[in-house]
Specification:
By secondary structure, the protein is an alpha/beta fold. Helices cover 34% and strands 24% of the residues. It contains eleven helices and 16 strands. Strands 1, 4, 9, 10, 11, 12, 13, 14, 15 and 16 form a ten-stranded mixed sheet that branches. Helix 1 crosses helix 9, helix 9 packs antiparallel against helix 10 and helix 10 crosses helix 11. The protein is globular.
Length: 351
Amino acid sequence: MKRKIVTFGELLLRFSKTDHLRLSQGDMFVSKYGGSEANVAVSLATLGDEVEYITRLPPTPIGHAAAMSLRQLGVDTHRVLYGGQRIGTYYLEPAAGMRSSRVIYDRDGSAYYELKPGMIPWREILADASILHVSGITAAISQNAADATFEALDIADELGVQISFDINYRKNLWRYGAEPRQTLKRMLSRCDMMFGDAIEFEYLCERAQPPFTATDSNFEMQMDEYGEWFDELHREFPRCQRWLMGMRNMVASSHHTLTALLWTNGTLLQAPIIDIPDVVDPMGVGDAFMAGLIHALGAFPGDEQLALNYSLAASALKNSIPGDFNLATHDEIMAVVEQRHNKGSLYKITV
């Protein structure tokens, strides 16, 4: 049985200041590599899956170091393309106290921005793959990158490869003229499983949902209303068999509660509510959700509730790890899963 997972997107260089300084303060930046689809690849490799990452990087020391950062974490990068002159970057100002986080992108003209259809040997790459994972960001950077994304989806369909999709709507990236919602819906119509946070679901489907405001175990989810909502979504996009929605309440900048819902085969499942009182770095939490689900579906076939709880625990643990990559191991994730007392209970993890 084929188990290789392929992820496709732009690998970025992230810059941030230390000690919660603003971008306008201090003299030094700390750099890390990241990017949604690369984050998924690293998480899967950490969990022991066979995973290959596809992108385009500049043939410079920075580009080669970026690929090396993935290889040393177990990700196959041997078919990464090299070309262009620069790597895409972003600048992160973390949340602190009453101040929200801030992200500034600098991706125009990057090696990935200039990617074109026909550059990537998709038939060769996907010939032994079980899953192709992409996100809304994969198609948001430029028209050429969007065309290359749909080329990959077409060939994956032809070869019978399952498609995993993360909405990943970032409004500041869609600047080349495409209508974001329609492009994302085109991608969603092609996928077999998907992830999004509650806000992204609302944007994509143009329908409000009950707010998630949990601060303790007494919070009750409006499951009947969510069930009707997911049923309606499935009628519009019948190919997608698994809909995973992550839900976060920011009690404070470093104190979050987290849960998730999974719709599958007409059944809506709820994960426990996790209390995270000491958030270290929330970047890449959604990617950890998706990677957790992909891994768990292979590790625990037929147990959708366990797969959901595993996905949530992986995402919760990511909050304890600096940088974009989730380096939580299978044993660490299972330890969090086993802390729960019953489905829908609140339990705390110290991170």
